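Supplementary Text 2. Reproducibility record for the structural model of the 132-residue chain.

All settings were left at their defaults, and a single model was retained for analysis rather than an ensemble. We include the record here because the model underlies the residue-level annotations in Supplementary Table 4.
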Amino acid sequence: MDDQVTVEGVAKAGIDRREFTLRSVMAMLSGVTITISGCGGGGGGSPTQPNPQPSSGDKVGNVSEPIHGHTAVILAAQLAAGGALTLNIRGTADHPHTVQLTGAEVASIAAGQRVGRASSEEDFHTHTVTFN
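Retained model, structure tokens:
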């Protein structure tokens, strides 16, 4: 039996079946990511970048359940500047989420209109953040 391996009719000279199989498995596994994490209230570490504390003129969003430490704040300066924003709503949670707002949505929030957006998915869940 010939030890030469072919893939879709193309000969792979110099690679035996065992090497071809090993390389194929390694190529398939190179895209695999295993994540072990949890989402909950207790003892999960501190955020890398805390959200700003709200002050006068800032808008604080309502984060849907389960909250577990997430906060969403648009600073008055960001509202005044307008334009699209990506908010980090990590707060004191042990994992991040972001919320994407368009420039039109930021303008609506600044004008006192109600705007709700879904967060990014992390730890197999999302949140809805509602401003005003």
